[in-house]
Amino acid sequence: MLTKRIIPCLDVTNGRVVKGTNFVNLRDAGDPVELAKRYNEEGADELVFLDITASSDKRGILIDLVSKVAEEVFIPFTVGGGINDISIIKDVLNAGADKVSINTAAVTNPDLIKDSSTQCGSQCIVVAVDARRTDTPFSHPEGSQKAWNISHLPDTVKRDSNSKWEVYTHGGRRPTGIDAVKWAAYMNKCGAGEILLTSMDADGTKAGYDVELTKAVSDAVSIPVIASGGAGTTQHIVDALNVCEAALLASLLHFRELTVDDIKTDCRAQALPVR
């Protein structure tokens, strides 16, 4: 069994780390550089930095801030938000990131995943999938619910009557009509090296990861899956790691409700391999 990874996530907007519930009601969680330094020292396996309003604001990622965070960490570092071109991917990697996370642009142009994985290596390309259960209608107070035109995508990824989860983009603001499990499998074929899977229903609730969703995606792909959204206890994290390779966490760590060591201690007690 591969070693499981514990990955803090820095959701950044306006230069600050924030955390909300179901992608809304954001509250300040601190300075990204200071938090990155802390998690590096506490033994996190990796770090994820997501500029969560870059796509919705139609702007570039905060390269200067990425560089400052990269200077403080000596663990693999993934950066996402508004990344929609190979030149931007290269800029982010040159700024100190080890991987990039792509969500909205993958839906707009799946060839970006194919081309970037060829040019930069699939190990650098993480496809982020924000998924919401199809039986829980969602209305975002800050953005339009105008659906995507996905005529450029293969029919095999589109929602049908059997779909349980739908992909959303633009920081959870826009539904796509894409089946989340089928989409992850398609991104795997396009060259993605990992899937960062966030349950929008569970996000920030502390009620546990959507293990059913996580397992469905893990079973559909041959690449690592990172579970995100819903951690409230170490047992929630263990439950997710029993069906995937890594767990992403935010508020539990940001507000010091748990430490990386707490989580790894419980994982070891339940025979899960961690560093």
What does this structure look like?
By secondary structure, the chain is an alpha/beta fold. Helix content is 31%, strand content 25%. The protein has ten helices and twelve strands. Strands 1-4-5-6-7-10-11-12 form an eight-stranded parallel barrel, surrounded by seven helices. Helix 1 runs parallel beside helix 2, helix 6 runs parallel beside helix 7 and helix 8 packs across helix 10. It is globular. The chain starts with a strand and ends in a 6-residue tail after the last helix.
Describe what is shown at a glance:
This protein is an alpha/beta fold. It has ten helices and twelve strands.
Counted by DSSP, the helix tally is: 10
Question: What is the radius of gyration computed over CA atoms, rounded to a whole number of angstroms?
Answer: 17 Å
Give the strand tally: 12
User: How widely separated are the two ends?
Assistant: 13 Å
Shape: globular
Work out the helicity level: 25-40%
Strand-residue proportion: 25-35%
Strand order of the largest sheet: 1-4-5-6-7-10-11-12
Please describe the biggest sheet, giving its number of strands, its sense, and whether it closes into a barrel: 8 strands, parallel, barrel
Overall structural class, as computed from helix and strand content, comes to: alpha/beta
What is the mean pLDDT? 90
What is the chain-wise order of helices and strands? EEEHEHEHEHHEEEHEHEHEHH
Note poorly predicted spans.
none
